[in-house]
Every structure is written in C-alpha cells, then in structure tokens.
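Slide 14.
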Amino acid sequence: MKNVTVMVALMLLWSGSAIMGEESGQTQMIKAQCRDLREANYTVGPDEALVDGKVCKVLKVPSLRAESSVAPAAALPPDVPDEVGVYFKRGNVWEEVMPEVLNWQTGGVIKGIVTYHIVKPDVNARLVGNTSGNFVRKPPQFIFRLPEGVEITEYQLIRLHTHAHSREFRTVTGGVFHQSGGAMRDTLFFEYEKIAPRTYSVNLSNLRPGEYGFLPPGAVLSSNPSAQLGKMYSFCVVDMP
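Slide 15: predicted structure.
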C-alpha cells in the first residue's frame, strides 16, 4: 500500500510539473535514461520524473511554440546602409549622396539679374555649378533610409536645367514650372519599393542622361529678404558601359 501511495504521489507531481510547463509556454521536457521504479529505490530526483511507470532523467529545453509566438524583427538586407540618408549604387557599393545647398530666389532678385543670363524670368531655384559631383551610371539605383515621421512620397524627383555655372529648375509656391508652362513640368514620377522599416529602394531605369535631384520635404533651411536657402540630393546620370 505504501508503494502504491508513493507512485500515485509521484505521478501527480509529474502531472503538475507538465501542466505548469505547458501553461508557461517557455520550456518543454524531454525524457532520457529511464529505469524501473524499483531500481530507483522508489525515489525521484530533482532532475527526474515518473514517466510510464519508470523514473527518467528530464531535460528542459526552450519551447518551440514560445519562440514562434514572438515575431522576429525585420532585418535590413546585408549590403544596405544602416544610417539615415540617401544612397546610390556604384558598382557593388552603396555611396551616400551628400546634399547641396539650394538657392531659392525671389522674383525681385530674378528680374535684377536676368540681363546677365544667369537665370530666366520664371526660374528661381538654383544649384551652384553646371554638374553634380555624384555621377550615376544607368540604370540609376538608390536606397532611401528615412527618419521617423518622414515618408518616401514627400520627396520629389526634379529634372535640372544646366547653364554655364549653375543648374536650375522653375518653381512657384506649391509647384514646379517649366519654361513652356504647366505646373509640375520639371517634376518626374518615380517608383519605389519598401524593403525594410523606413527603407526604400528606388530604380530610375527610364531616366535619360542629364542632371537631376531629389528635393526632400522641408527643403528650406534659412531665409533673408531676397533669398531662401535649402538643400537637394543632386546627381548626374551618365550613359557609360
């Protein structure tokens, strides 16, 4: 009778342990090295359990169910930069596009210098120099790593017009103008693909060789009575093998 009582108590103890393990969802038990209850002297050690009438050593391992219940964090592709910025593909390496200072000039200043053929009457956004220092081979590929609160749809792709000492595009409040008229004529459509949180891939395979730039949101940095300063991520598409 004593032996039966011990066995029942041990079975209840094992049953309770199994239930607790299942409820926590953190560990599962694997049996190994089983022996008869008589060989075990009717005792069950701290790392043992009674299974099918035998005393077995028990190994605790992490529960697969517990691990699968936690969604893994999305990881960046191995070659993508991890810092916020705009990057273009040069060979097999992503290089950062450093922004250029953009000069937004008011109508009064434009009229005063139009006779010097620096800008045309309906042009009031200018970058110094007739080409960008970022030469991108066709097809241009970019990666955008955006800060919190900024969306890829807030960026504008602009076609730039080259002159002897500058690159320019035409703007009005809330839009971009071309010499032949029509809002948004210098703004180009581009497609993007989200590849990770706040990370987008942009492929500009349809761009012809020339000067372009990405205009970020909030591009105005400072202002004075005659001009405003902003920034642009400029690049030059070159048709090279």
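Speaker note: The longest helix spans residues 2-24.
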